[in-house]
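We close this part of the discussion by returning to an individual protein. The encoding preserves chain order, so positions in sequence and tokens coincide. The sequence in question and its structure tokens are set out directly beneath this paragraph:

===
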Amino acid sequence: MHVKAIIEQGEVKLLAPVNLKHDKVNIELIIPDNEIIKEEQTNKITVDEYYMHFSPEIQAMMRDIDDIRSQYIKDSEIPELSEEQQLRIKAFSHRKEFKGE
């Protein structure tokens, strides 16, 4: 079914009433190209500009989280376990089994 609608501040509004069977319905929109802001026209902000909207305490926490994320080690960067480390892991596993944990 073709229905006319407008988008106002990101919300789709039908121009004529439609009785829908369900509360949530997937639809497809065709938006004219001249109504879309091109990527180079959008206002991109830096991380620091984004953080300015938060209190200093929140800013500090967000920077700490970013620091932690940047230190993440990929699986391919983790060195292989030595034979001694593997034996210790097995020993702890056997100890847990023995204790019934």
In short: DSSP finds three helices and two strands in the chain. The helical segments are 47-51, 56-70, 83-99. The two ends are 62 Å apart (CA to CA). The mean pLDDT is 83.
